[in-house]
Design brief:
- This protein is an alpha/beta fold and 129 residues long.
- 40% of the residues lie in helices and 24% in strands.
- It has one domain.
- The protein has a 5-stranded mixed beta sheet with strand order 1-2-3-4-5, with helices on both faces.
- Strand 4, helix 3 and strand 5 form a beta-alpha-beta unit.
- The longest helix has 23 residues.
Length: 129
């Protein structure tokens, strides 16, 4: 196999992983063709203090937040939610998902729930190990 074929195979593996994560863990009901285009945003290109973001099929925004970076949480988490919604709306995307680790305390989960009530039902937070 040549270098191009190796690279193509890695992209196929990445795409399959994004598809499985989105349709499984995030319960995304996006049609299959949506997964033909996946953009990865890292660092400064990522909205807010998200460590990374995926834009899937110009429909779904997935933000990955590092809990330890969102300090003070009461200030930074609302900013992450708002930056995700602002980016979603400015790019004409349909939905936004924010992925945080399970280390988020119960108190902070309640704050997140209250924050999300301020916005539409097209933004959700998911917690993972």
């Amino acid at each position: 196999m040549g270098k191009i074929a190796d690279f193509e195979k890695e992209i196929e593996i990445f795409t399959a992983k994004v598809h499985d994560f989105s349709t499984g863990e995030l319960n995304c009901g996006c049609p299959e063709h949506v997964f033909e285009q996946i953009r990865v945003l890292r660092g400064e290109a990522s909205p807010g203090k998200a460590s990374m973001a995926l834009v899937i099929g110009e429909q779904l925004l997935v933000l990955f937040g590092e809990y330890s970076v969102l300090e003070p949480f009461e200030y930074e988490m609302p900013r992450l939610v708002l930056s995700g919604i602002t980016y979603r709306d400015s790019m004409g995307l349909n939905r936004a998902r924010i992925v945080l680790g399970n280390e988020v305390t119960e108190e902070h989960r309640k704050l997140i729930d209250e924050e999300l009530k301020k916005y539409d039902d097209k933004v959700h937070v998911h917690y993972f190990d």
